[in-house]
Every structure is written in structure tokens, then in C-alpha cells.
Amino acid sequence: MTDSPAPTISEDSRVRLAPGVMLRHDRARDEWMLLAPERVLVLDDTALAVVRAATPRIPGAGDAGTVGEAITRLAADYDAPRADIAADVLEMLNDLLAKGYVVP
Question: At 44, is the secondary structure helix, strand, or coil?
């Protein structure tokens, strides 16, 4: 039996939160986090911006489109080189994929 390659996220991907994962704001601590069954991931401002830009149907996401479109928006929003933003966003989203927080 051949194992299929693990999925990865590219600029052409459309990313969404994995089933059972929610983005929530903890008002007491003033922190945004991804909540999953028996797991919590606290997001810093940069991670929150990436998750919001790349993931549909969460506060601030709008129509997320592809990861590449999200990268273009983030590069414009932060007036940063698109290549630098792309490398960071893809690394972060693939890490979230590996941890089960997002799916392509």
C-alpha cells in the first residue's frame, strides 16, 4: 500500500479552519486564540492577521479567496515585500495544517 503525500498549502490553496476549530477572543486576557478539541493556540497579532486574511467565515476575513490573494492583501496592508510575506504566510499556514488547525 502506497502512502499518499501529506497535503501542503500553496498560494493556489483555499484554506479553512479544520472541523471543530474556532477562532475566539478571550476578553479577560484580551487574546485571540484558535480553540480545538483539547487544544488552544494563542495567536499574536501577526498570526491573527494571517488567519483572518486566509480563512473564510471568521471575523474580519471577508471573502478570503486563495492564499495567494491573502498574501497580496497582507503585503499591501503592511507595505512589505510580497515575497517576504509569502514565505512567512506559507510557513505559518503549513505549520497550522500540520497541527490540525486548518485544512486546504
Answer: coil
Tens digit of each residue's pLDDT (9 = 90 or more) over 45-96: 999 999 998 887 654 545 558 999 999 999 999 999 999 999 999 999 999 9
Distance (Å, whole) CA 64 – CA 20: 19
Q: What's the CA gap between 85 and 92, in Å, rounded? A: 11
Torsion of CA 74, 83, 34, 31, to 10 degrees: -60
Q: Which residue has the cell 478539541?
A: 37
Task: Give residue for cell 490553496.
Answer: 13
pTM for the model: 0.85
36: helix, coil or strand?
A: strand
List the 22-26 sheet strands across, edge first: 22-26, 31-36, 39-43
d(CA 54, CA 70): 5
Helix (H), strand (E) at residue 26: strand 22-26
Radius of gyration, CA atoms only, the chain: 14
